[in-house]
Amino acid sequence: MHSSRPAPQSGFNFEYFMWLFTRVSGMALFLLALIGIVGAFWMGARTQIDVGALLRWTFFPNPFHVVNTNIPDVTIGWATAYWQIMQMMIIFFGVTHGINGVRMVIEDYLESPRKRLLSRSLLFLFWLFLMIVCVYVILYS
Amino acid sequence: MALKRNVGLRGLKYSGGGPMLAWILHRISGLGIIIFVSIHVLAGFSTHVVGTDWGDPVNRVYESLPFQIFIFFCVLYHALNGMRIAILDFWPRLLEHQRMAIWLQWAIFVPIYGLSVFLMIRSALTSG
User: Among residues A46, A53, A49, A56, which one has the least CA distance to residue A87?
Assistant: First the structure.
């Protein structure tokens, strides 16, 4: 039997909140990717960058992702506070979604509540660490 | 709720079928993305913020064509499969058509992925 796990019982509890968050953040990331790709074409991606750089920019609109292209000056348009805010949102939704996903995978194979508590604590610290590092990189770039 | 959930090692055995393939690919692609993003961010942090060079070999791997083809598979598959799951979860009446939804997902995935990979390989060959 490999049926998928049932959706958690709705209500004010952690599992249900993360179940909902996973779906909502996934769709938010779709929207953010759409904003990235439309913005790139708006700024002249069709003639200035190749498909690899376009995809990198779509996943994460960071100016470092498009430096080795034919864009004359990334500081015009591509490296702005607007795109920094988009990056922050991608990082928040993406990292939280991803770390929660790792928690789901780990807890499928961990039974003891103590081990689960330990893995959750470590994952929370890793989430915090990754968020801080990402914000540093975004503000620096 | 959480504690009742246990797949165990039997969950790793492939039992065939589109839904099982979607489940295992969703896990593999999701783990691929989180591992890639973590290491990539740390390498970027070391290169641009700290100013050390241990991230350079890591970045060279990421910039290579095979890796970009792999990570694009992960991202596109995970995105489309996640969208299918979200749609079926929010509109349970559509579960009646869930096997067709998996085929529809492949029908969307294959042209987008195929065309992107073709363009990536072509631009890599022409730019040398």
Answer: A56
